[in-house]
Amino acid sequence: MMSSSNIQWHKSSYSNGMGGECMEVAVLDEAIAVRDSKYALGPEITCSTAAWQGFIHAMAAIPPNIS
């Protein structure tokens, strides 16, 4: 895996800088990397592109929490 300083991270649109930070995602050559946007120097999770797509589709199928 390449050094984190060479990776172009994309912050979640749900991150707002007011305690609502979320996650960042980076597209690598053959994988997806995910990290906590509050801890940029912390650990990263890497998964295959297929696994990431499955995760995104599963999350999109969950209805929003209505309170």
Which structural category do the helix and sheet elements fall into? alpha+beta
What's the count of strands?
4
Main sheet strand line-up? 1-2-3-4
Number of self-contained structural domains: 1
Polypeptide structure, described:
The chain has one helix at residues 49-60, and strands at 10-11, 23-27, 31-36, 44-48. With 67 residues, the protein is an alpha+beta fold. The protein has one domain. The mean pLDDT is 83. A four-stranded antiparallel β-sheet has the order 1-2-3-4. The protein is flat.
Which secondary structure elements does this structure contain, and how are they paired or packed?
Elements: E1 10-11, E2 23-27, E3 31-36, E4 44-48, H1 49-60
Antiparallel strand pairs: 1-2, 2-3, 3-4
In brief, what are we looking at here?
With 67 residues, the protein is of the alpha+beta class. It has one helix at residues 49-60; strands spanning 10-11, 23-27, 31-36, 44-48. The mean pLDDT is 83.
Properties at a glance:
67 residues; alpha+beta; four-stranded antiparallel beta sheet; 4 strands
